[in-house]
Design goal:
The structure is a single chain. Helix content is 77%, strand content 0%. It is mainly α and 306 residues long. It starts with 6 loop residues before the first helix and ends with a helix. The longest helix has 51 residues.
């Protein structure tokens, strides 16, 4: 039975480090995508639609202003930049390290956001930095794992990078959500009644029923809790940077050499398929010949009997 994921890949130094790096990269990605729009709603009083739009690339197209630089757009742009850098030469290691540095910088800057009702203009710059890091990390991890495995393991290695990144994102989201709830319960216990606090944790829309003082304090405490979340995922980004150093190779395989290796593999595979077909045809022809001989002998036996 062929395993879905060969464990020997995880024991490979470069591949194991790349998979671990993908796992830790998922922490800041999911947390930012989920909680940044929520911060816009609670701290800045934005509607859910406007909060979502602020991290979509459509806003940049519709409004040519600096405040429209979203995380999602720069994540895609980072993937394009990373791919362009590695088009001629395998610099995946350096792109991966740079992406982790950008993620550390982006999450660190987001953790320093002021807690004011107005949306700070610098938040879009921070999103741009973080988004570039997200995009560059994805493409560099894909290239790193692809060049380290055989052609037979290419598909499973690429799928593994995606899956462990999602797994890391889910676990990171669970951790940061727990921290957020614990922080809010501690800071708002003397400001909101138990019912109000429980209602707010169940649905942030309940803030509309709070008094002016309660609303202001809830926004302040939520902003502080969000900054704490960013500090936590910044720590995971630092861990990701340290892990990425283990993907270094002094003489990495170039993309051109890997493409040639894959082409040779496909040629050999086609030749083996041709040989197998010819062998099968020979066996079928031999079987038919034997069957014909048996029929001839049977007819001769019947003639002798007569």
């Amino acid at each position: 039975m062929v395993p879905i994921f060969p464990t020997r890949l995880a024991r490979h130094r470069v591949i194991g480090a790349a998979l671990t790096c993908a796992f830790t990269t998922g922490f800041p990605f999911n947390t930012t995508i989920i909680y940044l729009p929520q911060r816009f709603q609670i701290v800045n009083g934005e509607t859910p639609v406007n909060a979502g739009i602020k991290i979509l690339p459509l806003l940049l197209i519709e409004n040519a202003n600096f405040e429209a630089l979203p995380t999602v757009l720069f994540s895609a742009l980072g993937s394009g930049i990373g791919g362009a850098l590695m088009n001629k030469k395998n610099v995946a290691f350096y792109v991966l390290v740079a992406s982790n540095v950008l993620e550390i910088l982006g999450t660190g800057l987001l953790s320093s956001l002021p807690v004011f009702p107005e949306v700070p203009p610098e938040i879009y710059v921070y999103q741009a930095i973080l988004g570039l890091g997200f995009g560059m990390s994805v493409v560099s991890l894909m290239v790193t794992t692809r060049l380290e495995v055989t052609v037979e393991d290419e598909a499973v290695s690429q799928g593994a990078v995606t899956q462990v990144r999602v797994l890391g994102g889910v676990i990171g989201l669970a951790i940061t959500t727990t921290v957020l709830i614990a922080s809010l319960e501690s800071d708002l216990s003397g400001i909101l009644s138990p019912d109000q606090l429980n209602s707010f944790l169940q649905s942030t829309g309940s803030i509309s029923g709070f008094s002016t003082l309660q609303t202001a304090m809830t926004r302040l405490m939520y902003g502080k809790a969000f900054n704490l979340q960013m500090k936590i995922i910044m720590a995971f980004s630092i861990a990701s940077l340290c892990i990425s150093l283990f993907t270094f190779r002094k003489h990495p395989l170039s993309l051109q050499d890997w493409a040639k290796k894959k082409e040779d593999y496909l040629v050999m595979k086609n030749l083996r398929n041709v040989d197998h077909r010819e062998e099968a045809d020979d066996k079928e022809e031999s079987a038919r010949a034997k069957e014909g001989d048996v029929q001839v002998k049977a007819e001769e036996a019947r003639g002798d009997a007569v």
